[in-house]
């Protein structure tokens, strides 16, 4: 996935082998510490990965948050899978992990992701700097998720 230009265009650009190894090590460490993190996503009864999903800790302006996210390979875009992944991550975060809120980060130019996040009940909170670039921070609280609508 890190070498797929279409997928990585909105995720910080292509990553080389060393960057991918560091990403893997960081995500395995997160699993060891928190018992959740990044998942590889398959279609039901599928043998080929369609993308990835995540719930992981993220520092935003000195505050520790839990972020949700997803990335899909291009053949699986436009099929509603991102919305399904988002709903599953939010449900796991709020129901199983008892999180009070969950954030998502996307680039200002990623209108497709912004649409999925808004449709999932997240509201754009602000612009901030993320890995040296402008990013949008979206958020949903547990009560908003449980009621099925933003507060």
Describe this structure in words.
The chain contains five helices and six strands. The relative contact order is 0.13. It has one domain: Aminopeptidase (3-Layer(aba) Sandwich). The chain has a three-stranded antiparallel sheet with strand order 1-2-3. Strands 4-6-5 form a three-stranded antiparallel sheet. The chain is globular, with a radius of gyration of 15 Å. It is of the alpha+beta class and 151 residues long. The mean pLDDT is 84. β2 and β3 form a beta hairpin.
How would you summarize the topology of this molecule?
Layout: H1 5-8, H2 17-34, E1 38-42, E2 49-60, E3 63-72, H3 81-96, E4 101-106, H4 111-119, E5 123-130, E6 133-141, H5 142-147
Antiparallel strand pairs: 1-2, 2-3, 4-6, 5-6
CATH level 4 superfamily: Gcn5-related N-acetyltransferase (GNAT)
Number of strands: 6
Terminal CA distance: 36 Å
What is the CATH architecture annotation?
A: 3-Layer(aba) Sandwich
Q: Return the average pLDDT rounded to an integer.
A: 84
Q: What is the approximate shape?
A: globular
- Tally of separate helices: 5
Q: Which structural category fits the helices and strands?
A: alpha+beta
* Residue share in β-strands: 25-35%
CATH hierarchy class name = Alpha Beta
SSE string, helix = H, strand = E? Answer: HHEEEHEHEEH
Instruction: Report the biggest beta sheet as strand number plus sense, adding barrel if it closes.
Output: 3 strands, antiparallel
Radius of gyration: 15 Å
Number of domains: 1
Please, what is the oligomeric state? single chain
């Amino acid at each position: 996935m890190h070498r797929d230009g279409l997928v990585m265009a909105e995720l910080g650009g292509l990553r080389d082998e060393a960057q991918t190894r560091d990403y893997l090590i960081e995500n395995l460490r997160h699993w060891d510490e928190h018992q959740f993190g990044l998942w590889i996503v398959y279609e039901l009864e599928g043998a080929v990965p369609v993308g990835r999903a995540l719930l992981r800790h993220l520092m935003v302006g000195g505050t520790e948050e839990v972020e949700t996210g997803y990335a899909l390979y291009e053949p699986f875009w436009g099929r509603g899978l991102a919305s399904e992944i988002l709903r599953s991550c939010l449900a796991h975060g709020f129901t199983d992990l008892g999180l009070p809120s969950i954030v998502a980060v996307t680039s200002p130019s990623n209108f497709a992701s912004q649409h999925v996040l808004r449709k999932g009940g997240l509201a754009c909170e602000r612009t901030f700097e993320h890995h040296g670039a402008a990013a949008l921070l979206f958020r949903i609280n547990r009560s908003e998720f449980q009621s099925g609508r933003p507060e």
